[in-house]
Design a protein that fits this description.
Oligomer: single chain
Helix content: 25-40%
CATH superfamily of the largest domain: Aldehyde Dehydrogenase, Chain A, domain 1
Bound molecules: adenosine-5'-diphosphate
Number of strands: 20
CATH topology of the largest domain: Aldehyde Dehydrogenase, Chain A, domain 1
CATH architecture of the largest domain: 3-Layer(aba) Sandwich
Strand order of the largest sheet: 14-15-16-13-12-17-18
Number of helices: 14
């Protein structure tokens, strides 16, 4: 492992203890294929031990005044920020994204901890006007209990801090199973939480290659009252089914197929900048990436030319190279998928304007690509590309754009570009999505509710809604009040 990251643990965390195992799995640098570390390959029994610890720690953590929990979370936030550079180096080594993006993710990830440190103090219930003279009504908010979190590799710090900070602020304890591609970032943020004073058992991390068995242990346990998952719709459906027997509360942040719609009356420069940010950030590996770029006929040719020019300025290189704006994809499967989607599109009449080939930096690098003439029925317009490929669909009318945009089982993010206020409102209201960027290509932040509709998921993270996900509302009815 590189010198910057040696201070971070490579052991799992159960009940405040760093756990090693004779069985391990390697963590690889996607830019070079070299091994960064070995981490414990834990199993379902270990997951149950972590649940035991979280269950035992729950009453004391829940009983702590919100202000005291807040002070600990605030310290965690400060430690995350203080370690921005070393965490970013670790993330780039483990996940591949360019260092400049990794630094932004650390700050973005920390922002949730800051927000929930504050918001946890505002878990207000309310009083309800009575229906009978001798009774009084009120509600109180209580933490739901032990939470299980299963997280992905594409934002290996932010997807953990977003879940853990909201759960802990509400008074819940948590067991996190990070992606097997990026366990080191998870362990690093957990170490900083321990350093900040998070008590033993409140935050546990199970590293494993056997996601299915650990997932079953987490979903099958009645003591786990809530599951929060970010990942594919396919795995989300498995976890949804597995959670049925114990009626868990669920937050599911699943796949997307975001349309980015550029109307003739759009500000071209703005729409290009936004399309570039939305499409090529993290080499196209985000669930809110513009997966389908819908461009109206009147602006289509100018948009393609400008996008071509902007794309030519991207710099493919290992993330640690300061010039890099496009790093490697996460693994060989990701490269295979991108190639297959492009081959299918070309076979059905689409045209690769630029790119479309592997990059010389190594087997996981792919050149930024623009493909035009995409039709809604092609696989590339229906599946998450998760690679640096801008896929362009031409349309004529507003109604046609809305119909194409909504013709998908997904409904996470959508983007529209128009200078016409009426159109912007109309289209934003018509789009079936949990989040709509209007003349904006990047909108996720700690104060806004993140989440999807349809098969993109359930629940919201961040914002006031994000705290609510970890709380139960208890109704108190006080009777026998005499006048
Ligand atoms: P991606 O394709 O982006 O890797 P996945 O949905 O496969 O998305 O993975 C997201 C998270 O879900 C990872 O932590 C992964 O280990 C975990 N995971 C994958 N399959 C299962 C499963 N059957 N049960 C529980 N967790 C799973």
């Amino acid at each position: 492992m590189n010198a910057q990251s040696t201070t971070f643990p490579t052991a799992a965390l159960i009940d405040g203890k760093w756990i090693t195992s004779s069985k391990t799995f390697p963590v690889l640098d996607p830019a070079t294929g070299s091994k960064l570390a070995d981490v414990p390959d834990l199993n379902a029994d270990d997951a149950r031990r972590a649940i035991d610890a979280a269950h035992q720690a729950f009453p004391a953590w829940a009983a702590k005044p919100a202000k005291d929990r807040s002070a600990i979370l605030r310290r965690w936030y400060e430690l995350l920020l203080a370690e921005t550079e070393s965490l970013a180096q670790l993330m780039t080594a483990e996940q591949g994204k360019p260092l400049c993006e990794a630094r932004k993710e650390v700050v973005y990830g920390a922002s949730f901890v800051e927000w929930f440190a504050e918001e946890g103090k505002r878990a207000y219930g309310h009083t309800i006007p009575t229906t009978g003279a001798s009774r009084r009504y009120l509600t109180i908010k209580q933490p739901i209990g032990v939470v299980a979190a299963i997280t992905p590799w594409n934002f290996p710090i932010a997807m953990i801090t977003r879940k853990v900070s909201s759960a802990l602020a509400a008074g819940c304890t948590i067991v996190v199973k990070p992606s097997e591609e990026t366990p080191l970032c998870a362990l690093a943020v957990a170490k900083l939480a321990v350093d900040a004073g998070v008590p033993a058992g409140v935050f546990n991390v199970i590293t494993t290659m056997d996601a299915a068995s650990v997932g079953q242990a987490l979903t099958g346990d009645d003591r786990v009252r809530k599951l929060t998952f970010t990942g594919s719709t396919e795995v989300g459906k498995i976890l949804y089914r597995q959670s049925a027997d114990t009626i868990k509360k669920l937050t599911l942040e699943l796949g997307g197929n975001a349309p980015l719609i550029v109307f003739d009356d759009a500000d071209l420069e703005r729409s290009i900048a936004a399309a570039m940010a939305s499409k090529f950030r993290n080499a196209g590996q985000t669930c809110v990436c513009a997966n389908r770029i819908l461009v109206q006929s009147g602006i289509y040719d100018r948009f393609v030319a400008s996008l071509h020019e902007a794309t030519s300025k991207l710099h493919v290189a290992p993330g640690r190279d300061p010039q890099s704006t496009i790093g490697p994809l996460i693994n060989a499967d990701a490269i295979t998928k991108v190639k297959a989607l492009l081959a299918d599109a070309v076979a059905k009449g689409a045209k690769i304007e630029v790119g479309g080939t592997p990059d010389a930096h190594g087997p996981l690098f792919f050149t930024p690509t623009i493909v035009t003439g995409v039709k809604p029925r092609m696989a590339i317009a229906n599946e998450e590309i998760f690679g640096p490929v801008a896929s362009l669909i031409r349309f004529d009318t507003e109604a046609e754009a809305i119909a194409i945009a909504n013709d998908t089982p997904y409904g996470l993010a959508a983007y529209l570009f128009s200078q016409n206020v009426s159109r912007a409102w109309r289209v934003a209201e018509a789009l079936e999505a949990g989040m709509v960027g209007i003349n904006e290509g990047m909108f996720s932040n700690e104060v806004a509710p993140f989440g999807g509709v349809k098969q993109s998921g359930l629940g919201r993270e961040g914002a006031q809604e994000g705290l609510e996900e970890y709380l139960e509302t208890k109704f108190l009815c006080i009777g026998g009040i005499t006048s």
